[in-house]
Amino acid sequence: MEEVVVLIVGAGPSGLAVSNCLSHLSIPNIVLEREDCSASLWRKRSYDRLTLHLAKEFSSLPCMPHASSSSTFMPRKCFIEYIDSYISKFGIEPIYSRSVESGLYVENEKKWRVEARNTLTQEKEVYVAQFLVVATGENSKGFIPELPGLDGFKGKIIHSSEYKSGKDYENKNVLVVGCGNSGMEISYDLSNFGAHTSIVIRNPFHVLTREMVYIGMLLCKYVPMTIADSVVTFLGKLWYGDLTSFGIHRPAKGPFHLKLASGKTPVIDIGTIKKIESGDIKVLPKIVRINGNNVVFENSVVKRFDEIIFATGYKSTANYWLKDYKYIMNKDGMPKRPYPHHWKGENGIYCVGFSKQGLAGITRDSVAIANDIDEVLHGMEGKIKVT
Ligand SMILES: Cc1cc2nc3c(=O)[nH]c(=O)nc-3n(C[C@H](O)[C@H](O)[C@H](O)COP(=O)(O)OP(=O)(O)OC[C@H]3O[C@@H](n4cnc5c(N)ncnc54)[C@H](O)[C@@H]3O)c2cc1C
Ligand SMILES: NC(=O)C1=CN([C@@H]2O[C@H](COP(=O)(O)OP(=O)(O)OC[C@H]3O[C@@H](n4cnc5c(N)ncnc54)[C@H](OP(=O)(O)O)[C@@H]3O)[C@@H](O)[C@H]2O)C=CC1
Ligand SMILES: O=C(O)C(=O)Cc1c[nH]c2ccccc12
Q1: Of 339, 361, 371, nearest to 13 (Cα)?
Q2: Which of 83, 147, 227, 383 is the most buried (most CB within 10 A)?
Q3: What pLDDT is recorded for position 385?
Q4: 307 pairs with which residues across the strands?
Q5: What ipTM did this prediction achieve?
Q6: Which domains are delineated in the chain?
């Protein structure tokens, strides 16, 4: 059994950021990670052409801005290099291959008891901590919906987190379910590699370019969000025109309010819309059922597919391993308190990276958590400066 002050679960950007902020305040902490590397989402569960959505000034972790030489919108590989530099610059030493299986609050000791499995030796390890930080991510597990007949689908099924590139899909009939950024980007990539690509669209969403989002992010710093929403929506309408004939409708709420209220990210178009307009990518409505290789859609169209890619989003898994999730989360493993109060629970538990605000949200959460723990321990005002 090991006694620690702060135990952090997960060595993604969130876990690393909190660890660094705590160490800056000389607060001892350890980080447990189930994989054999840090930032496993970026290294193992993302596709080749992935590039950061937000400009680098909105995509850094505390205490280390991106290099002036790096591109404004960083490719996945550069972001991984940034993570590696972050770890070595601040001497963060996550303990890898430790899958946390249980987290319980021991009332009489006022401590958290955490059990982890060493995935190399299968041995159990027990940690006792004064503070527990949940950093296992809101994208911990790919979500595939239940659809009538899906079990009997004769082709291959994958989740978007397993997709790497379209190179093995040439001439195949591929259905992409889900039109968030994963679904839209994967459809574009598939089509570039010569796959016959269709995408399911069932609800309204905003379509913007990354430059429009950048303008909006800058505006949000200086003017009310309503103005940023109006400007960006106007630019989106001007650039893309009316897309309703392709099944694409705009939500009533503006893109930034929607992101804040529900976490729904606008589609940041990389060329998919042009391919939809030209007919290279076909849009289909909601799936009714699946019969063998045939998929039946709400408009009664029936189409045969070789493969289905579910770009239907992710789920948190904190509710599985964190037995006493009630002190901070709902039973879906997401914070029970609304933004911006989501990061703090009761009895010394915190969560970072659950605000659906990407890397910028992680920076805000980790600074707030480290300052709060410092205050509980030392009764002083926080000292962290995010640079
Ligand atoms: C495809 C994709 C692209 C994205 N692009 C952007 C972007 O461009 N800009 C942006 O700001 N945000 C983006 N995001 C949001 C993104 O999730 C965050 O920016 C960031 O990666 C989240 O970091 P995290 O550390 O909270 O979670 P993760 O990166 O998911 O890290 C969590 C870590 O916890 C580990 N873990 C999970 N369960 C356990 C357990 N039981 N025991 C031990 N370890 C565990 C995991 O292995 C993982 O390494 C993107 C998300 C996705 C899915
Ligand atoms: N940096 C980058 O380049 C990228 C960033 N990302 C980010 O990663 C995060 C996750 O994105 P993503 O993986 O796209 O997940 P999202 O949760 O954003 O999108 C899921 C999509 O699946 C749809 N969906 C869910 N269930 C069904 C169903 N039963 N039938 C049809 N459609 C369904 C949803 O539609 P509905 O609205 O109708 O429920 C939605 O369009 C986002 O924040 C995103 O911005 C993702 C890819 C690239
Ligand atoms: O790319 C993502 O998924 C993000 O969550 C980054 C992000 C944070 N705030 C935003 C507002 C508009 C578009 C993307 C983001």
Answers
A1: 361
A2: 83
A3: 54
A4: 156, 174
A5: 0.98
A6: 2-140+316-378 (3.50.50.60), 142-310 (3.50.50.60)
Distance 50 CA to ligand 1 centre (A): 14
Helix (H, G, I), strand (E, B) or coil at 105: strand
- Evaluate: CB of 45 within 6 angstroms of ligand 1: no
Q: Which long-range contacts (CB under 8 A, 24 or more apart) does 374-382 make?
A: 374/25, 374/27, 376/131, 376/348, 377/5, 377/27, 382/25
| pLDDT greater than 70 at residue 248 | yes
Kindly give the distance from the C-alpha atom of residue 254 to the centroid of ligand 3, in angstroms, as a whole number.
14
Instruction: Calculate the average pLDDT of the chain.
Output: 96
Bridge partners (DSSP) of residue 100 are 116
Assigned token pair, 150: 């899906």
The Å distance, Cα 70 to ligand 1 centre, comes to 22
Across residues 274-285, what is the average pLDDT?
A: 98
Distance 215 CA to ligand 2 centre (A): 23
Contacts with 160 (C-beta within 8 Å, 6 or more apart), sequence order: 47, 142, 178, 182, 183, 186, 309, 310, 311, 312
Q: Is the CB of 10 under 6 A from ligand 1?
A: yes
Q: What pLDDT digit, counting tens, does each position of 55-86 carry?
A: 999 999 999 999 999 999 999 999 999 999 99
Ligand 3 centroid to Cα of residue 328, in Å, is 24
- pTM, two decimals, is 0.96
* Average pLDDT value for residue range 162-175: 97
Cβ of 13 below 6 Å from ligand 3: no
In percent, how much of the chain has pLDDT > 90?
98
**Ligand 2 midpoint to CA 264 (Å):** 8
Residue located nearest, by CA, to atom 2 of ligand 1: 46
Burial class (CB in 10 A: 0-12, 13-18, 19+), 68: exposed
Gap between the Cα atoms of 369 and 16, Å rounded = 13
Question: Is residue 137 lining ligand 3, measured as CB closer than 6 Å?
Answer: no
- Per-residue pLDDT of 319-341, as tens digits, reads 999 999 999 999 999 999 999 99
Cβ(313) – ligand 3 distance below 6 Å:
no
